[in-house]
What we know:
Its EC number is 2.3.2.2. This is Gamma-glutamyltransferase YwrD. It holds the Pfam family G_glu_transpept. This protein has helices at 30-41, 46-60, 101-106, 125-136, 141-154, 160-173, 184-189, 205-217, 220-224, 226-237, 244-248, 276-286, 298-318, 329-332, 335-342, 448-460, 466-471, 491-499; strands spanning 18-20, 23-27, 70-78, 84-90, 156-157, 201-202, 253-255, 258-262, 265-269, 362-369, 374-380, 390-391, 396-397, 428-432, 435-443, 475-479, 482-485, 503-506, 515-521, 528-532, 539-542. It is an alpha+beta fold and 543 residues long. Strand 10 and strand 11 form a beta hairpin. The longest helix has 21 residues, at 298-318.
Amino acid sequence: MHHVFSHHNPYPSCRSATYARHGMVAASQPQAAQVGRDILAAGGNAVDAAIATAAALTVVEPTGNGIGGDAFALVWMQDEDGSGQLHGLNASGVSPKALTREAVIKTGHEQMPLYGWTPVTVPGTPSAWAALSERFGRLPFDALLAPAIQLAREGFPVSPAISEQWQRAERRFRPTFTDPATQEWFSLFTPEGHAPQPGELFKSERHAATLESLAQSRCESFYRGELAEKIDAFSRATGGYLHASDLAAHQVEWVDPISVNYRGVEVWEIPPNGQGIVALMGLNIMNGFDDLHARDDITVLHRQCEAIKLAYADGHAFVTHAKHMTTRIEDLLSERYATGRRNEITETAMTPAPGAPHAGGTVYLATADGEGNMVSFIQSNYHNFGSGVVVPETGIALHNRGHGFSLEADHVNVVAPSKKTFHTIIPGFLTQNGRALGPFGVMGGFMQPQGHMQVVMNLLDFGLNPQAALDAPRWQWTGGRRISVEHGYPTHLLREMSRRGHEIDYAFDLTGFGRGQIILRDSATGILCGGTEPRTDSAIAVL
């Protein structure tokens, strides 16, 4: 589709889109992107490159992801005739069997805590790597983790954006992490007594040794081996809920991706428990407006904000793991429901409430090879470094994904044993007429569906190329009528938004607006066109 593969960039001060023929890796860290590119050069496919890049990111960007987090993927495997199939992988883990609502309340919590053992669910990231490699990979699994092992063992110079996030986390954690379960965080991440400065060499033999164990066992050691035993022992010694039996029961889920048709392009997401459905609901609402011609237009911006509010209200009210939902996914994505929600949008800002449908810290990377295979991959420790719980002598920082559970007894996402929570991380993918356009994603907690909707509209409604679509200023709904905006929006536009009832907040910290990557493929020529995030140390490596 011509305007998806546009050369248009209205932000000339920013980077131009990147083109390649034989392969491309877009990631939030240059060293990780280069690892993926080297795997392609060694004969690996897009899946191999994604796994290697993801493993490297656990080393060079520990502020957002790690071995102890969760992962999702959308994988396009190309056929010789140019068609193919999109596969969905949900590798998120469930809550421990010992984690009940009553147990959490008994410890004095009125809502799920952010730190400590309580929000720790079974990590799924290692299982994602192994499952992807087994089903679609070409190179030996240990070869994919070798670059990450080398980075951890020999060290790497910390990039500027990651150093800033690392230092900010240390300042927050020093007075917060006081219990035995979180003390190891300082030993692992501040070995010299402080978070690393930009350019400072950081190495972790513990991380390297754990990656070696994963490489040699194809990640079995994490769930049914030596690493599982260490996690279990530390949990029992420090009051955790997560045990070896929880890890041993973990299995990935191969799922059928869900989609909506937006302007003639299929936009794909992972089904719940992921929040990708929120992005699709928002796009479905916007799909009914035919006058979206200018990006910096008051009507467009107002409608975007109102649509995402409605989508999020429904997401929080109805979405959890699919098997626990009482509202059907197809009802939430139906044209009838979208029309009803669209009709609720007026000329003034609203405080959203759920509708009534019929009876529901992260890294993102994208890879493509010269054969047409493409991967949209995301993994996360959820909130920066995660729960603060670091398993001694392993380099494993456990995520705090369980923070997403509710403690309301009648809520669809109420915490319960062996349950997957409403999940923020979402990989995206675009297809048209049965052929791949390519992977896209914008990480960043609850910014992600909002980023997905804005990026897709930048591509499809406003004709921006992948780099320009990521460079464009973003907004974020933060609750009620509050809209946080990046600098770059015209002042007159924001004044009009205020007149319509929006509470506008200028944001100085750009980390809250997500970090994205895009790779699109021209089906006629096979040429790849990529964009990478300007708000962090991102890079594209090409073959």
